[in-house]
Design brief:
By secondary structure, this protein is α/β, with parallel strands linked by helices. It has seven domains: 112 residues, DNA repair protein MutS, domain I (MutS, DNA mismatch repair protein, domain I, 3-Layer(aba) Sandwich); 134 residues, 2-Layer Sandwich (Nucleotidyltransferase, domain 5), CATH 3.30.420; 155 residues, MutS, DNA mismatch repair protein, Chain A, domain 3 (Orthogonal Bundle), CATH 1.10.1420; 100 residues, MutS, DNA mismatch repair protein, Chain A, domain 3 (Orthogonal Bundle); 212 residues, P-loop containing nucleotide triphosphate hydrolases (Rossmann fold), CATH 3.40.50.300; 37 residues, no CATH class; 39 residues. The protein has a seven-stranded mixed sheet with strand order 13-23-24-25-21-26-27, with helices on both faces.
């Protein structure tokens, strides 16, 4: 079919659809037709599958046949989140004019493009998690990154090595990442394939364009005021985000009022392996309990989101850490104040997202009432903080904004039971606008007004039987019987003559008719106008409300820490300028919570410094708790530097600037790397980034290769850490007992072991760290506990004894001789028949035996066994 014929067959509606769809080829287009949103073609097939709606056909059987699926327009908030969660970009195409006002096809256009990283719908969002849109730029020497949560207005940027950017991407978990088209493969090579990407034209990632876009948005001459002007790659990534928002039809962005720098040197460095190994807020195991699950006692969405950020970015500034500890201590010592604060926080809605919805014009009247109620709930918190004996709390109280005018204006303008949508009516309070009050009066009391007019005119004219009625031809009229025709006033206009009566209209009735028929429409229009004016006025309070939200989030986090300390018996850590780490009675916060009721966690002491005990070599059997001790040490340090109290009897520590862990085997087979290769990569990353304040936790290094290789590598790594000028504090768990000998050569290495109690045929794990090396590993006991067949366990014990016996000599010969013994043991059994068979075989003259005789002798031996 020619293009001309195809055009002739294309309906005006489909022509309009195809033109709009051509502009958004990679999006699912929701096309408004009357009261429905329709999808066509491939979009319809995808939408019907994701939403579970019926797939039909338009122009069935014709050449222009196309798939069709739709849903009612008022169900948009039900269906849109499902499409976005499925990873689709959704273009919403609305009718831009009233169909009644046009005789041709209704004008339509895309009013919003919703993508995984740019979504306001509450069904898409999680209250305690940010929904970040990220952008990565590739500079000459390093990479830039920017993160924006359009629902809260948080806009952050940084730049650095691929490792640093990877760590940030994992910390912030963006729903969508923008990348320049020419860097597709570079991105995937550096960060893998498990991200939701969208590729932008390369010209968007240009210095001049980014600076111009950002300064135009912030209405500033430069970016110096935000302290990011030296982050050229970060600025490029940030500019691309604002460009993307304009492309997705998001132009009301008043709530994005600042660009914040993620200062690399302000936070504890943890590489991606450490974040994964410690299971801070995510795990490869879907049922795992994370640290965040255990410590989160926040009561507001803002607090929940900030706690996650604090966990991802622990502080290095001792003054700020102590400030947080002081507030937690104050709340812990004042439980009544803590309860009162928590009671108020429970009354506060998600201020950040409410004010962002307001800025973008997506707020409902009910949500504005929530905003007002939340600001009311802040007042007692402000008073409480100002009266407190804590300096940091008083400072926060001082900065909390009362927003008196804002609250008064909302209370005066909106009905206390405002609806969830302005279209439902009754949003604006009585007394706000005289015309609105009159229209409402007309709308609700129309019948009474007509009855009043009727009785008044009957009395005035003396026509007791006159009636006011309505029809579609000429609206409201007065009907008078012919017997009273002579009493009709001259100003009445006759409209219709009947057999027994006549019908009249009056100026008053016409005016009232116009009012009553247009009242509903006018009420909606006037309410919408008044609400928009209010929203526009409230927008001047965006900054103070955002500040309030941030301060309440901080108070919520600190109150959460105090509650955790009370519930779980956490203590305040003492942070000083030393290089020491002393933990007394330390516990693992997550394992402790998962123990059966009535079981107490076996706590442990750890001491590390740079002078005498820099490296602790921990030996002990598998399952004895070596890994738990390593992890709990890291988690205690991390909690302390977040500003939280810690699961220990006592902690004294110098600030730690980097935490490195190499814990557990983490295969990367999908990337074509073996367990051992991954282990070596992770360990190399640690050794190349050490500092004098690093904390290093190594678990079973070298176990991915042969024993002697493993021992050699583990020894060399321990020696490197010992000789490093930074002398990093290290816990080194190993099952290679040979490493215990290192203490004889290297002065700052100490041997410890996780104690066990040997019973007759079993072993009891005491999970207590004691000084001294462990003699053996008890791996065979673990095998027995795992249900290994007894024959295997017995054989293993025998081999172990032989190996231990030959340990000083050639271990391999030990295994060989054991193997020989195993082959001969057939004749060592105390059995007369076996001895008889042995004698038969020994007395054979093999040199003279023919093949047939050999078969016959074999058959004879077989018969002896069968008889038996």
């Amino acid at each position: 079919m020619s293009a001309k014929e195809k055009a002739a067959k294309e309906t005006p509606l489909m022509k309009q659809y195809n033109e709009i769809k051509a502009k958004y080829p990679d999006a699912c287009l929701l096309f408004r037709v009357g009261d429905f949103y329709e999808t066509f073609g491939e979009d319809a097939i995808r939408a019907s599958r994701i939403l579970g709606i019926i797939l039909t056909k338009r122009g069935n059987g014709s050449e222009s046949e196309t798939a069709l699926a739709g849903f009612p327009h008022h169900s948009l908030n039900t269906y849109l989140p499902k499409l976005v969660k499925a990873g689709l970009r959704v273009a919403i195409c609305d009718q831009l004019e009233d169909p009644k006002m046009t005789k041709t096809i209704v004008k339509r256009g895309v009013t919003e493009l919703v993508t995984p990283g740019v979504a306001f719908n509450d069904e898409v969002l999680q209250s305690k998690s940010n929904n970040f849109l990220a952008s990565v730029s590739f500079g000459k020497k390093q990479l830039g990154v920017a993160f924006l949560d359009v629902t809260t207005g948080e806009f952050l940027t940084a730049q650095g090595t691929p490792d640093y950017i990877d760590k940030l991407l994992r910390n912030f978990s963006p729903s969508e990442i923008l990348v320049p088209k020419q860097c597709k493969s570079a991105f995937r090579e550096a960060f893998g394939d498990d991200h939701h990407l969208f590729f932008l034209e390369d010209w968007v990632y240009k210095d001049d364009y980014a600076v111009e876009t950002l300064t135009r948005h912030f209405k500033t001459n430069s970016l110096k005021g935000f302290g990011v002007d030296d982050l050229s790659d970060g600025i490029v990534a940030s500019g691309a985000i604002l460009y993307y928002l304009s492309e997705t039809r998001h132009d009301r962005l008043q709530h994005i009022s600042a660009l914040q720098r993620i200062a690399e040197d302000a936070y504890v460095w943890m590489d991606r392996f450490t974040i994964r190994n410690l299971e801070l807020y995510g795990s490869t195991n879907p049922n795992a309990v994370t640290l965040l699950d255990v410590i989160d006692r926040t009561l507001s969405p803002m607090g929940g989101r900030l706690l996650k950020r604090w966990l991802a970015l622990p502080l290095k500034d001792i003054v700020k850490i102590r400030e947080r500890h002081a507030v937690v201590r104050y709340f812990k010592e004042q439980p009544d104040t803590l309860r009162a604060l928590q009671q108020q926080i429970r009354l506060i809605s998600d201020l950040e997202r409410l004010i962002s919805k307001l800025a973008t014009g997506k707020v409902s009247p009910r949500e504005v009432i929530y905003l007002c109620d939340s600001l009311d709930a802040i007042l007692p918190i402000k008073e409480m903080a100002l009266k407190s004996g804590n300096e940091a709390l008083r400072f926060m109280g001082d900065n909390l904004h009362g927003c008196e005018l804002l609250r008064e204006k909302i209370r005066a303008t909106l009905h206390p039971d405002a609806p969830v949508a302005i279209a439902k009516g009754n949003a604006i309070a009585a007394g706000v606008h005289p015309d609105l009050d009159e229209l409402r009066s007309i709308s609700t009391s129309g019948k009474e007004v007509l009855e009043r007019i009727e009785s008044r005119e009957a009395e005035r004219t003396g026509i007791a039987s006159l009636k006011i009625s309505f029809n579609n031809v000429f609206g409201y009229y007065i009907e008078v019987r012919n017997t009273h025709k002579d009493k009709v006033p001259t100003e009445w206009i006759r409209k219709q003559t009947l057999v027994n009566a006549e019908r009249y209209i009056t100026e008053e009735l016409k005016e009232y008719e116009t009012k009553i028929l247009g009242a509903e429409e006018k009420i909606h229009k006037l309410e919408t106008e008044l609400f928009e004016q209010l929203v526009h006025w409230i927008a001047t309070y965006i900054k103070p409300v955002q500040l309030n939200a941030h301060l309440i989030a901080q108070l919520d986090c600190l109150a959460s820490f105090a509650q955790l300390a009370l519930d779980q018996h956490y203590t305040e850590p003492l942070i000083d300028d030393s290089f020491e780490l002393e933990i007394k009675g330390g516990r693992h916060p997550v394992i402790e919570k998962q123990l059966p009721v009535g079981t107490s966690y076996i706590s442990n002491d750890v001491f590390l410094d740079r002078e005498a005990q820099q490296i602790i070599m921990i030996t002990g059997p598998n399952m004895s708790g070596k890994s738990a001790i390593l992890r709990q040490t890291a988690l205690i340090v991390l909690l302390a530097q977040m500003g939280c109290f810690v699961p220990a009897d006592e902690v004294r520590m110098g600030m730690v600037d980097k935490i490195f862990t190499r814990v557990g085997a983490s295969d990367n087979i999908s990337m074509g790397e073996s367990t051992f290769m991954v282990e070596m990569n992770e360990t190399a990353s640690i050794l190349n980034n050490l500092s004098d304040r690093s904390l290093v936790l190594l678990d079973e290094i070298g176990r991915g290769t042969s024993t002697y290789d493993g021992i050699s590598i583990a020894w060399a790594i321990a020696e490197y850490l010992h000789e490093h000028p930074g002398r990093p504090k290290t816990l080194f768990a190993t099952h290679y007992h040979e490493l215990n000998e290192m203490t004889d050569i290297l002065p700052r290495i100490r041997n410890f072991n996780v104690s066990v109690k040997e019973l007759k045929d079993n072993v009891l794990f005491l999970r207590k760290l004691i000084e001294g090396g462990s003699a053996h590993s008890f791996g065979i006991h673990v095998a027995r506990m795992a249900g290994m067949p007894q024959t295997v366990v017995a054989k293993a014990q025998k081999l172990l004894k032989k190996l231990e016996k030959n340990h000083s000599g050639d271990a391999l010969n030990g295994i060989r001789s054991e193997k020989e013994e195993m082959q001969l043991s057939f004749f060592n059994l105390d059995d007369p028949l076996l001895e008889e068979i042995r004698d038969e075989i020994v007395n054979l003259d093999i040199n003279t035996l023919t093949p047939v005789e050999a078969l016959m002798k074999l058959n004879e031996i077989r018969r002896m066994l069968v008889k038996k």
